[in-house]
Amino acid sequence: MKKNLFLNLLSLGLSLFVFTNMTAQKCDAALRSAELSPYGTRSCNGKTGNYLQRTVCNETSTTFDPSTHSISLPRGREAACFTIVGYSGKPDWKIIDEATGAVVFDPVMPTTAPRLGTLKLTAPTKDKVYKIVLNRTTSIKSSWITLGFVDYQP
Fold this sequence. Notes:
Blueprint: H1 2-23, H2 29-34, E1 41-44, E2 47-57, E3 68-73, E4 77-88, E5 93-97, E6 103-105, E7 121-123, E8 128-134, E9 144-152
């Protein structure tokens, strides 16, 4: 009986620790800098590429805008196999083509639009930049979302 009580209390303590850490994302210069380098390699669409993450937050900063983050693709590269790594609150976000301002992904797009897991961003003939943008007005304060994806040579 005492062993079960101990295990239940340990489980509750670990759950609270994980929950607290999952909901507290700090969008600071250290995170932004860390996200500029790959977190290793992964396979995507039969190719091996760089696994990257990008976080956008509904916070303020004096050194950068944490509500936007870029996905820069050199000519001839693709980004795909997108996943939501984590989020907190109710972030209202989308991915846009920086050059045209066109929305390439919005979680509330109609069902005929590509789902996040099937989204593929390309730079076939020249360098291209896409932006993940969090709407500060419609997102709950302190909301954040982290996307993971693979950048590879097709």
